[in-house]
Protein 1
Amino acid sequence: MHSGFLGGDDWESEYDALKKGDPMYLRTLGQYVTHFAGRTGVPVTAFGPRQGDEERVCEGLKRGLGLSGTVTEGDLVRFSLDGVAPVEGVVDSVLLPSFLGVRTSDGLYRFVGRNGEVAVGHHIFTPGVDREQAELAWQNWLVQLYA
């Protein structure tokens, strides 16, 4: 449930974002309770370069995650970050073209594309993760992905 008000002239856009974003947050909560209950995650947020539209964001993310065609929950994902060994996971949420969720053994990775903006909002459950270093690594990944 949301309460309050959306100020400004673009309230319709903000309302639309909430309407699209809430299902991703609820799915993330479900994944956390099922796979990571009781563990504390490090929140990681990074933004990539603006793209022309949601479809361009979506296609870039699919490419970067080793996906193609129609993406469905359960699809296997494989990507590398800063030359580290490949990360393998599974798609756990598909709300394309705006949201894509991936679960690995150590994290919930959330990819967001809205109006050409691209961002990640992850929860990493590996002990000792340096948040600033992780955010920089993801920032670099997004910049390289859309170069």
Protein 2
Amino acid sequence: MTVVRHHTAVDGLDRFIPVRKSDILSALVEQDAFADDGEREKFCRLCEMLAAIYHYDCFKMLERLRDDYYYFSPEVARHAAVDGLLVERSYADLVQTLDAVLKEANFVEVPHAEVGDAHRRRTVLRVEVEAPLDDFREVRFYRRGRHDEQFEVVEWFGLRRRTIQAEVYDDVVMMIAAKSAAEVETRKLRRLQRRKIIPGSVLLKYFHNVASSDLNALFPNVRVVMSRFDKLMLGVPALAGGIPILLNLYATTAVLILVIGFYLGLGGTVADKDMKTALAALGGLVALGGFAMQQWVRYQRQSLKYQVELTENVYFRNINNNMGIFDYLIGAAEDQEGKEVFLAYHFLHVATSPPTADELDSRIEAWLLKTFGINLDFEVDGALDKLQRLGLLERKGERLFVSPLDGALAQLDRTWRGLFPREAQAAAQ
């Protein structure tokens, strides 16, 4: 299967801003909306202070994630003496914090029903796969960013090639919580352990450029299932070749049993023609065994071919795993928050009259489309909440106001010093 990349703009349902923070800041500063260079410089300082405050907040969230994940990391041995209530509380905290971080980074959770429906309509990965959900305590998928790609699909043993277009997720995060050893049947437990899935652990995986119909293939317990076409291609030749051998054996098996009984001293007499028939029957059994082995090898070869296709599809898209994804996710959340607040403050600051939230949302979306060619659903409510928590936003009915640059800088300076009260107190003395 050959892939030809063909990016299209994400539709209006996505809130992910796929532009660097520095590019957005540069584009805002270069506009003629500022009175003079001094005002531009103050706006840049404001953005630097906002970024520093969010960096500090995100660092605390990163430490919380690492602490909550300690008991569930596959790389850390589980402590038998750990209180079960503590583990459950840590698991609830981990899920809550991870969900919050992902949403701040503009990831969207994908419902299980959508995952299953997409796999049934799969177009890119032609392999039929099975991934039982009951092996796990909880499974969650989050995706961010979407585009279309064109794929060249080979069919009918290479005789036919056609190009298809499929929806691809830019980023996918998967969280899988394994059941404890006591909750899993012995047979299933051995199967999971062969796949290095530790009971009670939480697996976190981050993927890039995954077709929406291939999410099922990302499960750690996924296995290849033969399609109906494959079963026909393997079964019909097996029947065609095996039936004649079985018919010959049916006619000669009784004579073979008689000859074996004679040589074992169980009685009876054997004529020369019976010996020839018995040897023919023995040859038929050998042929049947060889035929069965040949079919088994064909089945295993086809299964291995699909397994390799499945592995390659996942391997080259896996970016990071487990605790290693925390730094990236926190950085992504910090980056998205910063861009949203920069945009919200700027367009409120330069507005000729105080806008409503809907008007602000439309102006920012129109500017992003005009400036960067991206069409998205700007998270205006989240940006306004952030400004309000920092004391930079005032609401009068539906109209929105932000503090002037001088007042906003002074307010952010107080907020920054409030993050380190002991240092501020020591400096004052």
Protein 3
Amino acid sequence: MPKDLANITTGQSTYGFWEYISYCDTLFYDLWIHCAEPSGLGLGLGVGLIISSFITKAVFTPIIVYSQMVGVKMKLLAPDNEELMSSMKRYS
């Protein structure tokens, strides 16, 4: 349920940072339990944790790859940036 019902009519966000954290926690816990149920909760909790970890890793992999590509591009641009900064210092 939204935190502040008056915000719905004005179009403002009704959820804060901690509500999103709580939602993600509940989502990942439910995923873990859902993956654990087919093989029983005794052995299934370990298997469910491994499966839900792989699913979570697969969801975040594109973001990680993109950020690593941007980091490599920034490293490649560093010599040019140093050259530009040194040329700007000459004129100031």
